[in-house]
C-alpha cells in the first residue's frame, strides 16, 4: 500500500533503521570523497580531535539516506517520493566511528501543498541520527517533494 502526501501527519515521529559502520567502508568513502588524514590514517587520527579514525560527516549523511530510503520501502512511501529539494540546519554533533551502530528518528515538521503543481506537496522533516548509545551524531531538516494521492478514475 502506498503512502501519499495526504496520509502524512504533522508532528508524527518515527524511529527506524540499523546501520553498522565498518572500518573498510569508512576508509573507502574517505579515500574517494573526503581524504582528510583523520578519516584515513590511524596515526594522524590519534592526534586529531577525534582520537581515532572517524567517518566523514558526508558519509554519515549517506548512511542516513540508506536507512531512510529502506524505511520508506518498508512503509510504502517510496512510491510517492519525488526526491528532495534541499536540506537545512545540517549539524554533525558527535563523531561516528567504525563499530558504531546507527539508527534514526524522523519528525514531520510541516507539509504544504504545492501552489503550482497540484500533483505534489512539500514536506519539512527533522531527521536525527543516533549511535548505539542513543547519542545524537547528526541532525538535519530535509525538504522533500511528495506525490499527492491520485484522483479516482
Polypeptide structure, described:
25% of the residues lie in helices and 37% in strands. It is built from 4 helices and 5 strands. A hairpin with a 5-residue loop joins strand 4 (120-130) and strand 5 (136-147). A 5-stranded antiparallel β-sheet has the order 1-3-4-5-2, covered by helices on one side. It is α+β, with helices and mostly antiparallel strands and 153 residues long.
Layout: helices, strands, pairs:
Layout: E1 13-20, H1 23-33, H2 37-40, H3 42-46, H4 57-75, E2 81-92, E3 101-113, E4 120-130, E5 136-147
Antiparallel strand pairs: 1-3, 2-5, 3-4, 4-5
Keywords:
alpha+beta, 153 residues, 5 strands, 25% helix, elongated, five-stranded antiparallel β-sheet
Short description:
With 153 residues, the chain is an alpha+beta fold.
Radius of gyration: 18 Å
Helical content stands at: 25-40%
> So what's the overall shape?
elongated
SSE run: EHHHHEEEE
Q: How many individual helices?
A: 4
Strand count: 5
| CA(first)-CA(last) distance | 18 Å
Oligomer kind:
single chain
Structural class: alpha+beta
Strand order of the largest sheet: 1-3-4-5-2
- In round numbers, the mean pLDDT is 96
Indicate the low-confidence ranges by residue numbers: none
The fraction of residues in strands falls at: 35-45%
Question: Sheet bearing the most strands, described?
Answer: 5 strands, antiparallel
Amino acid at each position: 500500500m502506498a503512502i501519499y502526501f495526504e496520509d502524512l501527519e504533522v508532528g508524527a515521529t518515527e524511529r527506524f533503521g540499523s546501520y553498522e559502520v565498518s572500518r573498510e567502508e569508512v576508509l573507502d568513502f574517505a579515500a574517494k570523497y573526503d581524504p582528510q588524514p583523520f578519516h584515513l590514517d590511524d596515526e594522524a587520527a590519534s592526534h586529531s580531535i577525534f582520537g581515532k579514525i572517524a567517518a566523514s560527516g558526508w558519509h554519515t549523511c549517506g548512511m542516513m539516506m540508506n536507512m531512510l530510503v529502506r524505511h520508506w520501502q518498508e512503509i510504502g512511501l517510496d512510491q510517492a517520493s519525488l526526491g528532495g529539494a534541499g536540506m537545512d540546519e545540517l549539524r554533525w554533533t558527535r563523531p561516528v566511528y567504525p563499530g558504531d551502530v546507527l539508527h534514526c528518528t524522523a519528525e514531520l515538521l510541516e507539509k504544504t501543498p504545492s501552489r503550482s503543481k497540484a500533483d505534489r506537496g512539500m514536506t519539512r522533516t527533522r531527521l536525527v541520527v543516533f549511535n548505539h548509545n542513543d547519542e545524537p551524531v547528526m541532525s538535519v531538516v530535509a525538504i522533500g517533494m511528495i506525490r499527492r494521492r491520485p484522483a479516482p478514475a
